[in-house]
Amino acid sequence: MKTIFLATAVLLGSLYASVPDNVEEFTLSNGVRVITRTIDNNEIEGLSLFITGGSSALTEETQGLERFSLECAMMGSEDFPGPQWRALMDRTQAEWTSSFNYDYSRYHLRCIREDLPILLSAFGNCLLNPELDPQAFEQVRTSTSQDLQEKYNDPDSWIWFVANDAFMPGHTYRRLPDGTVETVSGFTQEDVSNMLDERIRSGNLLVTHAGPTEPEELREILEIAFGNIPEGGQEYAPVEPFTVSNDTIVIQHRDVPTAYAVVKFNAPPQSHEDLLPFRTATTVINDILWQVLRTDNALTYATFSGATSYRENWGYMYVSSPQPALACSLMAGVLADMIENPIDEDIVRGTIEKSRTRANLMAASKDDQCRIMGNSEICTGDWRNAYTMFDNISELSSEDLSDVLNRWVVYGGWGIIADTTVVSVEQLQPWPLK
Q: CA-CA distance, 286 to 304, in Å (whole number)?
């Protein structure tokens, strides 16, 4: 329990020193929550709209429907039909990006300050009164289906979902936010209208902002843009823990020159005291994997490890190699050895400092500021945790990292994509992690 007490003590000592003082929270008249960080170093605005729920809002039949519906809505609206909407994008040179994960959907806007009001008004109109032009509707279906097919055809992308089959059968997160080619092919305009009506509700939404617009001015802009969104929203049960009860493996045959392998294993859920030490441990493993698999044994040009940032989490290790049995055996051995034998303290210190540097570089982006505040608010219940995470690990020891891995790592779910006419399936058995 040493890690828990240490992390908690550091958190209490660093919380108010690390949280920026230029962040404010407020709620629009209809209940939409807003977190804004005023950053006036230039005229560039960053603003994200999060729609909470993710996989919890989907069924087997509606996998991908939220993403599909939002993408259709973003093709134009009653007040900003397609040509006018595209002309506004060209004139303002605004950038819209989107992402859809197990816990939420997110749209992010990057623009100059003077264009923020008109762009958000158009965005709100797209969400509430989408045009749903039949030609644009089918255009979204075609592009979405192509994206999904390309993901499936790329073994380096698809291997993660093969590992899901082994690690999380029947879990909420098995419902794919991006959908499948089969589900997307059947969506209708009525499905899209119903999904938008259900999901575009104030209680489902969170806005995060980083930029020069002051909170009171931002409130006025957002009231105009989003104030007509209906109140209400869905309440979802907490995401269930992963319950893999033995080492498992799913093998998919493909005619590929090299094999791809991913193993997933239990990690602490979001907000648990062990999560930050656990992430640090997988970052240390990341460096060791390269040394063992690439430098010492010349088995791969690509291997890494890490841990996720969802409401329920997993650790993972990845490798691509023409010799998957040997590579996976060594990969599992790295994790098992770190559990049994704490590594040199200097390696831990170096890994923590590199992680801190990467985080600080990333935080320079207003896009990332919006993302980490929103992700932390949704997944941990408090946006402030986004700013204290690295303070909480600064005093971790090598023994702490071994202990946290030992507490959480039990069984692994392995996914393998390989040419089974070349690689012996008998050699591809699940490798124990401890």
A: 5
Give the strand pairing for 302-307 and 248-253: unpaired
User: Residue 101 corresponds to which amino acid?
Assistant: N
The tokens describing 279, both together, are 């992430």
Distance between CA 133 and CA 131 in Å, rounded?
A: 6
> Domain locations in the chain?
21-226, 248-427
Q: At what angle do helices 398-408 and 324-340 cross, to 10 degrees?
A: 120
- Separation CA 229–CA 127 (nearest Å): 9
Got the DSSP string for 24-44? Answer: EEEE-TTS-EEEEEE--SSSE
- Could you tell me if 408 and 267 are in contact, meaning their C-beta atoms sit under 8 angstroms apart? yes
CATH classification (class only), 248-427: alpha beta
pTM > 0.85: yes or no:
yes
The answer to whether the CB of 27 falls within 8 A of the CB of 297 is no
Task: Give the Cα separation of 313 and 294 in Å (integer).
Answer: 27
The pLDDT tens digits for 137-166 are: 999 999 999 999 999 999 999 999 999 999
**Angle of helix 345-362 relative to helix 398-408, nearest 10 degrees?**
80
* CATH class in words for 21-226: alpha beta
Same fold, 21-226 and 248-427: yes
C-alpha 313/C-alpha 267 separation (Å) is 5
Single out the residue of 279, 306, 303 nearest to residue 289, CA to CA.
Answer: 303
Judged against a pLDDT cut of 60, whether residue 414 lies above it is answered with: yes
User: How far apart (Å, rounded) are the C-alpha atoms in residues 231 and 323?
Assistant: 56
Burial profile 400-418: b = 16 or more Cβ within 10 angstroms, e = fewer? bbbbbbebbbebbbbbbbb
Q: Given pLDDT bands bounded at 50, 70 and 90, which one contains residue 386?
A: confident
Contacts 24+ apart (CB under 8 A), 354-360: 355/280, 355/283, 355/390, 355/393, 356/390, 359/389, 359/390
